[in-house]
Amino acid sequence: xxxxxxxxxxxxxxFVSYYDxxxxxSDKEKQTRFQNLFTWELxxxxxxxxxxxxPAFEKLL
Length: 61
What we know:
Layout: H1 4-24, H2 28-60
């Protein structure tokens, strides 16, 4: 079972992929779909970092 840091780290290349699809697509519907996906996944990622990763990391300091 992957740890939280592995999961968070895995998100970063996905963000780059979504961003590339947004800026390189000429299809407005596809751009909107990936903008929404990017926003949703970034929010999910940020919440996970704030609620789980950062508090656990602070305990180690």
